[in-house]
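Query structure, 145 tokens:
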């Protein structure tokens, strides 16, 4: 199990990064497996958080540098997904980035933040709070129960 705790952290980072992109992946199960099979709690949560936030920053830059054609062809976002994310972003503003961890709407929301040129540090702070908070609550709940 030491192997999982050591080398699994790299896999967790990669999974968390990819899960933050438009790819339909999840990193939560791997996080819980690593926590269950090691005495580590803080480091896996930190690694998952960093990977997930960096993945969201990748989305941000795709939106910042890209256009709707890129979003549709490369990221395979539908018009409906882009419209929903844009609507939510316009309606709720920058604080909606605290919900970037949500399935389905969270990833497109980070791309739209790039399209709308949200200040990068503010983007990173809000996304990091939301995504790290999710991992902390998940790991803490798993540890308690």
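Result returned for the query:
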């Amino acid at each position: 199990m030491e192997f999982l705790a050591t080398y699994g952290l790299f896999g967790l980072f990669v999974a968390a990064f990819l899960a933050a992109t438009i790819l339909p992946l999840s990193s939560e199960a791997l996080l819980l497996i690593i926590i269950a099979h090691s005495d580590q709690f803080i480091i896996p949560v930190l690694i998952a958080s960093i990977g997930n936030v960096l993945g969201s920053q990748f989305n941000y830059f795709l939106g910042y540098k890209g256009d709707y054609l890129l979003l549709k062809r490369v990221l395979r976002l539908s018009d409906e997904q882009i419209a929903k994310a844009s609507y939510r972003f316009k309606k709720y503003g920058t604080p909606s980035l605290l919900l970037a961890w949500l399935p389905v709407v969270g990833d497109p929301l980070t791309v739209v933040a790039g399209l709308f040129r949200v200040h990068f540090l503010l983007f990173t702070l809000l996304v990091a709070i939301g995504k790290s908070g999710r991992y902390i609550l998940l790991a803490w709940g798993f540890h308690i129960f």
